[in-house]
Amino acid sequence: MKDYSSNNAFLSWEGTINRKDYVINMLILLTLFFGIFFIKFDVLAPQKVLNVILTYMVYFLQFIVLISILSVVYRRINDFSIGRSYKFKKTMNTIFGVLFLFPVLYFYVFAYFLSFLQAIIAILNILAFSAIIIGMIAAVVFAFIKSK
């Protein structure tokens, strides 16, 4: 049985999230995610070993924030899917998988293993970047869809 209670946790995949909390959480998480790109590692850790450790920790933090963004989007999809048909829920879960989960899995896992297939990786790069752009638009649209 699914948990349909509303919560505001960042790393929770269970339950739902209302529109106001969705917008607030997405703004916080996107600020963290894109703010990490502006960190200058050479200034913070000029030693090579410390720089490598700090870089690893910051990229791991970026991955955790990305998983948090995915969980917030997934719970928002659960929120406006309650009370709708099974086909709608299945379609929305497919959209989540294609627009949000595919680019994350591709860039963090599959791109390293498929690097020797240049023709396939070029096509998958185009598909992943287009999924990211459409996913960003969909994430904004999800903030305006009312639940039943």
Please, could you describe this protein's structure?
The structure is a single chain. The protein has 148 residues and is an all-alpha fold. It starts with 18 loop residues before the first helix and ends in a 6-residue tail after the last helix. It is globular, with a radius of gyration of 18 Å. It contains five helices and no strands. The longest helix has 34 residues. Helix 1 packs antiparallel against helix 3, helix 3 runs antiparallel to helix 4 and helix 4 runs antiparallel to helix 5. Helices cover 73% and strands 0% of the residues.
SSE arrangement, N to C: HHHHH
Q: Report the major sheet.
A: none
The total count of helices amounts to 5
Taken from the alpha-carbon principal axes, the silhouette is globular
Strand content: under 5%
The poorly predicted ranges are: none
How big is the Rg? 18 Å
By DSSP, the count of extended strands is 0
Secondary structure class reads mainly alpha
Short summary:
With 148 residues, the protein is mostly helical.
Helix and strand layout, with pairings?
Elements (H helix, E strand, L loop, with lengths): L18 H17 L5 H4 L3 H34 L4 H28 L4 H25 L6
List keywords for this structure.
148 residues; 5 helices
